[in-house]
Amino acid sequence: MSGFLSVSGLRLSYGRTEAVKGIDLEVRQGAVVSLIGANGAGKTTTMRGLSGLLKTAAGSIRFCGEDITNAPAHKIARMGIRQVPEGRQVFAEMTVDENLSLGGLQVGDSADFRRRREAVLDRFPRLRERLTQHAGYLSGGEQQMLALGRAMMGGPKLLLLDEPSMGLAPLFVEEIFKIVADLRQDGTTILLVEQNAQAALEIADHAYVLESGRITLEGPASDVVNDPRVIAAYLGDH
Ligand code: ATP
């Protein structure tokens, strides 16, 4: 037990449809953990359960020694779990700066707020160049950076990244994975959901394979990437 994030027997449903069927998951502090699986396997549902957007049907979620099962989403965010949702979901009508500010709403101290804003803008110079632009005018890759920057404004202990490379041009995909590597280097703990299994396994310490709502394989990412079943199902000829 890592004592950081421990998920036990988690079940999540949409009405009568059970999408996550009793999974156990451990994320150690400072690790990058990848969750891979086909479309509809339950990856996004798992993320939504962890961030409190979806109520737990059964099982438990513990974070930093506290039971957060079915805690309200705002409390979970305040505790330091920040989700970067699939499809970015930035506020198109608001400026880049306003979007970032929303991510830092819970940061009371204004000196702290300014420090974080500067750190985010140092990391994403493109955002600094576009601070006054409406987020809707940004490219997909820039919106992904904004979504990441917005999450980082909250000083996350655990980042939940849902398909950060989805729909991006190859150059941006490379850049996003470089940012994930940098965040890891800085000691940010990350749970990463990705269709791009190869890249997700290369960057991770530990990995889980989710199939039809169940974990079918887990282990050090360096083992998972060499598992014949994973190669056959997710990695093709790589
Ligand atoms: P993807 O890569 O396509 O996002 P995923 O692994 O993230 O896939 P989920 O989005 O978690 O999968 O979906 C898991 C299952 O739950 C699927 O069978 C899906 O059809 C179902 N599901 C997802 N969202 C809802 C919803 N709002 N209402 C009902 N069923 C849903």
TrEMBL record:
Leader sequence segment: none
MF annotations from Gene Ontology: ATP binding
For whether the record's keyword set contains ATP-binding, the answer is yes
The UniProt entry, under CDD domains, shows: ABC_TM1139_LivF_branched (cd03224)
- Entry keywords, A to Z: Amino-acid transport, ATP-binding, Nucleotide-binding, Transport
* Keyword Protease among record annotations: no
Q: What's a Pfam family in this record?
A: ABC_tran
The protein's name is ABC transporter ATP-binding protein
Give the species this sequence originates from. Answer: Roseibium litorale
